[in-house]
Amino acid sequence: MTPAARTQAAIELLDQIIVAARDGGASADVLIQRGFAARRYAGSKDRRAIRGLIYDAIRLCGERPDSGRAALLALAQGDAALTGTFDGSSYGSAPIGPNEVPAQPGIAPIWLMDELAASGIGADQAMALLGRASLDLRVNTLKASVVQVRAALPEAEAIDGLDAALRFPSDTSVEKTQPYIDGWIEVQDAGSQVVALAAGAQAGMRVVDLCAGGGGKTLALAAAMENSGALLASDTDRPRLSRLMPRAERAGVSIVETRLLNPGHEAGPLADWIGTADVVLIDAPCSGTGTWRRNPEARWRLTPARLARLVETQARLLDIGAGLVKPGGTLVHIVCSLLDAEGAGQVEAFLARHPDWTAAPLALALGTPHGPGMRLTPLSHSTDGFFVAKLLRP
User: Fold this and answer.
1) In a 10 Å sphere around its CB, with 0-12 CB exposed, 13-18 middle and 19+ buried, how is residue 314 labelled?
2) Residues forming the active site
């Protein structure tokens, strides 16, 4: 493909991503994969260049652009080489008109920047949310030691404070390595590993991962439990939950039971666990403001109304989770968000509804105290953004 054709392909895919962000459609990664499948003539260098243009444009534009062309025009400002690809050539993009208006660069929509600022996230912290994430691994101690994994993957770097965590450059592919195939390692951000450890899960416990998704934290809990006890992984998303058991089998985990829940009616299928769990971990559905390094178009999807719905869902799940905890047990609230409405404020509201519960002090390998819990950020801790709090039932 010519450089002009690459630019036009990026514009066309950005158009789809912008519409999907507005209407709640497929993610950018999915749309890009579909786009490449329809452009089989694009070689590996073409795909890499197109993907780079797309994500550079997404990271540049805080507000959702009107079009893919406006996004690429913003990216082209000050870049003579990219500007030159708007040449009107065959399969290329039309020349830039004198009255065309590029999209406005920025970190996030104005209302969302205000929410971040009110939550103690300044401009430097917010800008770091759009950096490039590393590839982090968790060593599965049920099958291998860190020493064994580092011998097999010598390019891995240790992460201070986390014995079972290793780090690679963001473009590393590990899925075809023998340690991955053998279940020695799991791909998991270091921040995700830290907040999972906040649960304090131990061998023989009864533990619930209420919003298990694909099972990343479930498998971390199973390793902490030494594959001994009872571990219930539930979710309302059937496709995501269906991926957990094959992962568990590869990891050598046998204590997990999965349970599909009905959205809005989660409590009924959990009746047999009421008041019996040592730990209930809730990695709640959230805005994902802490994951923009991996999903930068997520900030184009969020609206004040959607945020309000997420906050309401989180509060309901916390109340459901509290009912599963036995006396003296623990409820762990996790969000990959840096907004206080979903983190510190959400926990404070829970404690107001449940005045006999208390927030326990946390001593984690990474993180900064924030309200009744702890916060991790890309700038301060080189992880995805998280808030975690540990709540104790009397």
Assistant:
1) buried
2) 336
Neighbours of 256 (CB within 10 A): 24
The tally of domains found in the chain comes to 3
Identify whether 117 is part of a domain. Answer: no
Per-residue pLDDT of the chain (394 residues; tens, 9 = 90+): 999 999 999 999 999 999 999 999 999 999 999 999 999 889 999 999 999 999 999 999 999 999 999 999 999 998 999 999 999 998 999 999 999 999 999 999 999 999 999 999 999 999 999 999 999 999 999 999 999 999 999 999 999 889 999 999 888 889 999 999 999 999 999 999 999 999 999 999 999 999 999 999 999 999 999 999 999 999 999 999 999 999 999 999 999 999 999 988 888 899 999 999 999 999 999 999 999 999 999 999 999 999 999 999 999 999 999 999 999 999 999 999 999 999 999 999 999 999 999 999 999 999 999 999 999 999 999 999 999 999 999 9
Residues 215 and 179 in one domain: no
How far is the C-alpha of 47 from the C-alpha of 45, rounded, in Å? Answer: 5
125 in a domain, yes or no?
A: no
Name the pTM for this structure. Answer: 0.93
Question: DSSP 3-state assignment of 171?
Answer: coil
Residues 98, 170: one domain? no
Residues 6+ apart with CB under 8 A from 176: none
CA distances from 279 to 205, 356, 390 (A): 8, 17, 10
Residues 6+ away with beta carbon under 8 Å from 364: 194, 195, 197, 198, 374, 388
- Full residue range of the structural domain in which residue 145 is found: 135-187
Residue 131 token pair: 């950096």
CB 236 within 8 A of CB 207: no
| Neighbour count for residue 272 (Cβ, 10 Å) | 9
